[in-house]
Design brief:
Distance between the termini: 18 Å
Largest sheet: none
Order of helices and strands: HHHHHHH
Helix content: over 70%
Radius of gyration: 18 Å
Number of strands: 0
Strand content: under 5%
Amino acid sequence: MPWGGGILLTLISGWYYLLLNQYGSWPQVPEALKIGTNWGLMVIGVTFAWVKVAVIVGQLKQTRKDMTVLRLFKEVYTPQALTIIIPFVAAMVAVSAFLITREQTLYLVPALSILVGLTCIAYVNIFYVKELVVTGDWLLATGIITLFTAEIIHPLLVPIITFGLGFIAMYVANRILER
């Protein structure tokens, strides 16, 4: 289920988009529906993360019998990887805080799309996963486009265009590159 993240993100954003179209704004959504949506999102998120880690570790165990979740984290978060991860995460936090405190949240997803796209492109040199170039380029391009068109695109369609389709593009690239 490597495409699952893109589809899941698309479905979640689509669900919120439908709720806002139906009720006009988040405060007007019935309380029971908001609670159910938030609990459902939490359960789906935790389940998806657990399944994703289990699948990755399971695939790695085919080549390394001693692979565990802890070992996976130790091998991914090496000093070399952290020199790229930490500055990008710091930039994401800083840009998010800046946009939120300036009440410019309309630009939050496009800005994060650009930063995550650049992070994916930088990761290629560490992890040698070619699909990250496709995802990174997609996130960078759609982030720039949605940044300049944020006022005319519904905010809940932006995560679908950027991250949802970007993760699906990663799956498609993986399938093409496997041949």
